[in-house]
Amino acid sequence: MRGTRLRPAWLILMGIGALMLAVAGCAVAPQPAPTATPAPTSTPTPLPQPIDLVVVYTSDTVGETEPCG
Amino acid sequence: MGGLARRATFIKAARAENANLLLLDGGNTFWSRVSVTVQSQGKVIAEAMNLMGYDAVALGETDLQLGEDILRQRIADAQFAVLSANVIVQSTGELFADPYVLLEVGGRTVGIIGLTGSESLLPASLGPEPPLDRLVSLQGDKPQPAPAPSPLSGPSSPTPVQVADQPRPAAGHIVGSLAIIDPAVALAAYVKELQAQTNVIIVLSNLGWESNVRLTEMVPGVDLIISAGAGKVVTDPWQAPQTGTLVCQAGVYPQANPGQLVANIKMHIDSAGLVTEYTGGLVVLGPQFADDAGVRRLLLSYLPQ
Fold first, then answer.
1. In terms of CATH architecture, what is B84-289?
2. Mutate which: B4, B142, B203, vs A, most A CBs within 10 A
3. Beta carbons of A51 and B299 less than 8 Å apart
4. Domain residues of chain B, as ranges?
5. Each residue's pLDDT tens digit in chain A (69 positions)?
6. Whole-angstrom Cα distance, residue B247 to residue B231?
7. What is the ipTM of this complex?
């Protein structure tokens, strides 16, 4: 049991070392590059294309099936 | 063999020449006194129109005589939209048919609204006088050649019809279990709804010529009204001076020789949905048009063996 027990002095030294490593790590840790958040841009809705539209139409045929002309 | 078979031939030729084509009917289509149509309760007409590739048809006031159940069957038969924004089922108050349809043509969305009724639904006191100089008699007069393209001005802002929440059927416009409600109110509501989705709107209306001309001022935002019902055949499209809405009519109810005419209108529609040029014309389906074989076979299948 004696061999595995750490002395208080060692504990203090390990604590100081850990503290120094943490401070050094913070100092050298790469800082995240400031990224510019793009401002939301309003993309204009594309206008529909002009169209040549043909409408063929009938009406009032009241069920007629035979030629009348 | 058939006016329908000749019509099919004309339509096939028109499709071959025009990629961006809509095939529409203003209404009064299924109900009939013609024996083959009576016996099939309008089914032969729905099937012939399927073969021709119709895109949309307005429910006509005469069609309501078939009754709610038969009409539901015809609507189920149709591979095209059967529209009415102002026919309701009395017992529920719900619309009987789809009020409109959105169709894609040449990369543009076109909204088509159907209106059902007759002249008496829109009294003359509600709108401007209709233009009478563009009307011709169907009996004895030949259709005139189409006019040259006409530049149009943009629409102005006439006083719109107020949209009511619960339009009521007009007195005397109840047919069996169905009722016709105020067409102007219904149109204003659905034009407003469609304008969120498209800037090209066509109305199929069998209210008759004079009422449809009044509608152009009462409800702005419509590009074209295919007029049907009472009135006379119009040789070339008429344009409302205030709103730019075009009105044209190829048939009349009643008339001696229904189904002998087919008409067309070619419109250039700009990005904003304005019609900037148009031409139109009527064609009499005479013997120069051969019968379409497919429609001919269909009609023969309905004849007694």
1. 4-Layer Sandwich (3.60)
2. B4
3. no
4. 84-289
5. 444 555 667 667 666 766 665 555 544 555 556 566 666 677 777 889 999 999 999 999 999 998 753
6. 12
7. 0.86
